[in-house]
Amino acid sequence: MNKLSRKRVAKQKGLTLVLVTLAMIILLGFAALAIDVNHALLNKTRLQNAVDTAALSAAVLLDAGNDEDTVRSSVGEALTNAMAATGNSEFTIPNTSISVTLSNDPLTFGGAYNHALESYVRVAVSNISLNSFFLSYFGIDKFVAASAVAGPSSSITHVCNVVPMAVCAATHSGSDDFLGYDFGEIYALKVASTSQTEMGPGNFQLLDFGSGASTVRNALAGGFEGCVDVNNQADTKPGGSVGPVGQGLNTRFGDYGAGLSESDYPSDVYIKEPNDLATIDGDGNVEYSDSFNYANYKAASASCIDGGGDGYCRTGEVERRVLSIPMVNCAGSGGGSTTLPITAIGCFFLIQKAPTNNSGQQAVFGEFIEDCTIVNGSTGIIPSNEGPYRLQLYKDPLSGES
Which of 76, 157, 184, 386 has the highest CB neighbour count under 10 A? Predict the structure, then answer.
């Protein structure tokens, strides 16, 4: 009996050793799989970020009117630059793996395309091979792919980062303008004389966002926390309030006073003004002969961020000089405190500092630009590249992953 028991115990020990060995092999296999899977997911994320960047970059060029060949060629360059960034150099993206498709509908790609209509771009990258750590021992290769769609959002209908000024808009847009405003032209955003505006006696193109000079000052500095809706109405605020208006707006140029601080209202990163300032005559006609414009500002502010600059750079926020301003229908305005319908939200670049006194009866001037960023707000359901909107990413209808 003793001899038989010892033999049985020896057999059990041998079986246990086999089971432990098999378990260790299985655990090592799972560990190896986890390493390769995590590695693939990491690089999938890197590739998706690069493709998102390339699609948005292409959408910007497409939106700016560049031809299709320029847009398509920009994608490869954008992907190359993105993958050359720190941490992204593990693999390259050959041109044969890149597909660029243009469409007038973010939900349909591959059909007819009209460059004159709202335009969307789809960028897809496929069959990017990755190094395998352990899967190669099992005869398995690793590949990643990614795609992205970018284009204009629908028109903005609800905006929260507006300022309490308004401009009178036409009832409809022409072939070369938006509600009577030409992109790149300089307009008066707040006038110094009621003869310079269509809002009627007592109005200087200010809106009533709350009574008191401090409310006007803080709202124009960027402190308004309310929202406005297109197709709703806004109340005008009679009176010029020249001092508070200038004090609030000029924080965007780094000028502080009247209790305003840089910590609450940072300046723009670039504060240059034109050498020849814009002016307005008694009838409301704006005169501007200087070449400085929003395009110059964008290039200069980008240089400031990159550490360059021409002496007008400051520590601040990009595009603090870009204002979201309600465009209202002034038809029938009788002057005084009146209610006007909001037709749209316009984007204006603050070309120069606002006056802080009424000497010379000068206005607040802004260049009408195509779009601007909204901090809080929402868009409608009809895509449009006319008026303020966002260039954004969409879910790719041809991929369940993006």
Answer: 157
